[in-house]
Amino acid sequence: MLLGTNCEAIPEKFTIIPGLPNDLAYLCLACVPLSRYGRVKAVCKAWRATLYTKFLFDLRKKWGKSEEFLCLFRDDPSVVQGEIFDPRSESWSLIPPMPCDPHRYGLTNFVCVAVEGHLYVIGGSLFDTRSFPMHRPSSSGAVFRYDPVLSRWERRSSMNHARGSFACGVCNDNTVVVAGGGSRHAQFSAGGNRLSSVERYDVGKDRWFKEEDLPSVRAGCVGFVLHDEFWVMGGYGDSKTVGGVFPMDEYYRDGEILCTGSGKWSELPPMWEEGERCHLGRVAAMEGKNGEPLGIFMLEGFKIYRYDIASNRWQTESCLPRKVLAEEVCGIVALYQELYVIPGSSLTDLEFGRRPRPKRASLVLQVYNPKKRTWRQVLTKPPIRNHLSFPWAAMCSIRL
User: Which CATH topology does 1-66 take?
Assistant: First the structure.
């Protein structure tokens, strides 16, 4: 794939493709799939330098040649390398570790989003050796940006309020909105503080701006952008104790909607009746084409639900064909108008009737097409053999 090379400026005297003007040669190279860049760059020095320029990637976007990729972090990005999956070539590449702080460890409940061809890792919960007591988790306000073309991380401006397990969405103007959150860590089932603060990040100015707070504290919530609105669903607020000993969360059945134009919040009524379910599963928002409405889907167990805006209800859409892979640790993400369900555990080759190979494991991705209402399976071999452990893991899609 394309990850990890140095860019070089192309002298004007260089001819990219003999017999063609360089403007047309740029367009030809922009049509080459990214999975072929590793081979194409070996043609000549001019091609190698051309393939990894911002101009070429801007040209790909302008002419509709951008491709979608799955970005996956199995664990703390500063410890375990991230991975990028190309659904067209069914190939993987690695993301170098994120810059680390020697005093902080165990980052979880962070969010990763893609904006303008860059990958952002925002917030999370972690432990700090300088805090007391050391076993108590704290929130992180750190923001890191990864450039897939240059294969380089850089630190960006931190949030005004540190937070983990929060709602996050990318607006149409390429700003990032975060809402709610707290300090709970994945190793603890309850506890930690909760927030109601809301912020918007301008990626161009590298600045965070305060927005109107949520009407109430809300952590563990889901966020997505629908047209010009930022939706926040589910989550939990204040905790209660059973018998005065065991803390339990009070999960929300409703949500809040922020109008990005006016900056005002409106209430979303309860999406299900008492007793239907405890809390939201994993949610993926699918972008529509040609003005079609977005599709909001939720994975819960081995079922996929679609959110109906008119009735404010989650309706059963489909069931996973392989229920053995329907773990609570599954993730879901939208790519190329399809839903990719990523299981937490891998399958050995023996389970597919093949001769087992030492230390080789396969990951089965179950892919659902909402338009055709059909399923297919993708059998891949990721470069990292660690099991996925949600909510330690985070994933998103990126266009390049």
Answer: Monooxygenase (1.20.1280)
